[in-house]
Amino acid sequence: MLGAPSVHDNPLAPARANFLIPVMVQKSFETWRVYYTTGYLTRGITFHSLAWEWNGWSRVTPTVVVSHGRLTKDQDFIAELELNRSRSDILAGAGIFLAPNWGAYANVSHSFGRRDPNSLRYQLSAGVSYTFRVWGRQ
Q1: Cα 2 to the chain's mean position, in Å?
Q2: Of 4, 45, 68, 77, which one has the fewest beta carbons inside 10 Å?
Q3: For 79-99, how does the pLDDT look when each residue is reduced to its tens digit (9 = 90+)?
Q4: Which CATH class is domain 15-130?
């Protein structure tokens, strides 16, 4: 996480390891769930996100996430770099059950608000996952 590619010539790169202190609340209903997460990253960032997940289908789970992060430290330095102190994003995606222990996902996200070099015009992500148990019985 603190290797040369992530810190080389990057004035915003942390000079030490940082920790994330999250709190998450979930409420489940018959066919959908809502998650709220808030927290603090020790390099000086507070964050909040609200996620909605629909579980009406057996193989596909659509998800929408709205998130917001705000810098609480180095605000003058950020202003000097002409970056926003906060950023809000929206993500829409789906998780797909492929087979026992196998899944896939695809997401698209977008930043909204005043644009800066740190904003996402659009970001696409996709992947495959395999779930296994290290110890204990299934």
Answers
A1: 19
A2: 4
A3: 777 778 888 999 999 999 999
A4: mainly beta
